[in-house]
Write a structure and sequence with these properties.
single chain, 55 residues, 3 helices, disordered N terminus
């Protein structure tokens, strides 16, 4: 599914920003732009919760 939204941080950029961080984790909220918490709230809240369960 193609989104017409302009992505705030592309996957490649997120990877470069996270690379020097030990224990890094990145996630993509597809079909969301500047307000992922409102555009895809389920995905937005699931990702941090899943990550925190591993810490």
């Amino acid at each position: 599914m193609q989104s017409s939204f302009a992505y705030f941080c592309e996957d490649a950029m997120a990877g470069r920003l996270a690379k020097p961080v030990p224990g890094r984790h990145t996630a993509t909220v597809r079909a969301a732009a500047h307000y992922p918490n409102m555009e895809n709230p389920v995905r937005f809240s699931t990702e941090p919760t899943s990550f925190l369960e591993t810490v």
